[in-house]
Amino acid sequence: MSRIVAMKAYGYDWSNIHGLTMAQAASTMAGHGVDWALIQNQIDPLPGSAVDQRPPEGAYSDKGFREALGERGIVVYESTSVFFDPESFAADPSLRPIDQHGRVFEPSGWYVGVCPSDRKYLARKAERISEVVEKLRPDGMFLSFIRFPGFWELWMPETVREDIAEYCFCDRCLDRFEEETGHSDRRPQVLLGELRPAWTAWKCGVIAEAAAVLRAAAGETTVLLNGFGLGTDDFGNAVEELLAQRFGDLDASVDHYELMFYYQIQRRDPATWIPRRIADARAKTDRTLLACLQAGAEYLEPEYASGNRKREITDADWVAALRASADADGVAVYSWRDLLANPTRVAALLDYKNGF
Q1: I want to staple 34 with a disulfide (CB 3.0 to 4.6 A). Which of 7, 13, 42, 195 is the partner?
Q2: Residue 161 gets which letter from DSSP?
Q3: Following DSSP, what letter does each residue of 117-155 receive, concatenated?
Q4: Is the pTM of this model over 0.90?
Q5: Would you say 256 and 222 are in contact if contact means Cβ atoms under 8 Å apart?
Q6: Per-residue pLDDT reduced to its tens digit, 177-226
Q7: Strand, helix or coil for residue 321
């Protein structure tokens, strides 16, 4: 059995650090066993994040790189950042989310979430995706950051749900909730209490609507959605109540899911955590499931020290995570820069691809 290997390669370390040409990068990626490449473009560029997003200088073009990948049989997914948008957050105060305590969202590190309920914002994103599909003709679209705001990478095993901010209680969200559900009580304590099921369902519907609109904009291309390695028993069902992703609502617009099992970031044991969560997801959807695995340690800066994360991902950790993903349809690797920096780990990835 050959499993899918997807590679998050939307940074440009392959050129800026390793000095590879487009052709060399595509050949290297093929040698790493990659079936799907998740890349970015300059029509709808990704905001800066934990991955260096600076495009390479010189002989580079979006179209040229896609052609090089396609010539080697690699399926190309263009990545779009749906509700992570620092530029729009700065320009439009109405997009700044408000939590249950009436506090306006404050950017945390690199992450800047925007409120998902503005249909005009969504229409602009759809137009950008249509342009990407028309000009670059990718095989698929990768919808990332498609959720209500939440810096979930900072939710550690000891985090208490009551300490997590929930969004969004802006006037637009409350107006839409009332119009679309008929519930006129807008008080956060009521929405999070007796109206919790209706509030959660409405939030999940907002994200499902966004997925449907962007799916339509993508035309005939397939859609891969950026999901979570969280189950309904994590942080009080935060995956649905806070982030507003529900398989049953999303399936109509999604062909494949990649579930972020960032075991070092969230301080989890991959051997037990990943199989359990894959089984949870299998019970809720029949779509393709990719286990997205960290290949390198993250969030080691002083501002994240309270997480007490391991300073490295060892070869043994990497193999354990791959073996724990045996029941997935494949893996997505976050990110290619880590394999380029640690090429000895490619052998284990190829072993996984071929069923160990």
Answers
A1: 7
A2: G
A3: T-HHHHHHHHHHHHHHHHHH--SEEEEES-SSS--GGG-
A4: yes
A5: yes
A6: 999 999 999 999 999 999 999 999 999 999 999 999 999 999 999 999 99
A7: helix
pLDDT digits (tens, 9 = 90+) for 178-187: 999 999 999 9
Tokens 């354990």 -> residue: 320
Contact (CB, 8 A) for 339 and 287: no
- Six-digit token pair at 337? 């820069």
SS3 annotation, 245-295: CCHHHHHHHCCEEEEEECCCCCCCCHHHHHHHHHHHHHCCCCCEEEEEEEC
Residue 54, amino acid: R
Q: Over 80: is that where the pLDDT of 54 sits?
A: no
- 93 burial via Cβ count (<10 Å: 0-12, 13-18, 19+): exposed
* AA identity, residue 68: A
**What is d(CA 61, CA 67) in angstroms, rounded to the nearest whole number?**
10
Of 9, 11, 144, 150, nearest to 80 (Cα)?
Answer: 144
> Exposed, middle or buried: residue 142 (CB in 10 Å: 0-12, 13-18, 19+)?
buried
User: Among residues 70, 47, 171, 189, which one has the least CA distance to residue 118?
Assistant: 171
CB atoms within 10 A of CB 116: 26
Contacts of residue 119, defined as CB under 8 A and 6 or more positions apart, other chains included, come to: none
Amino acid occupying residue 37: A
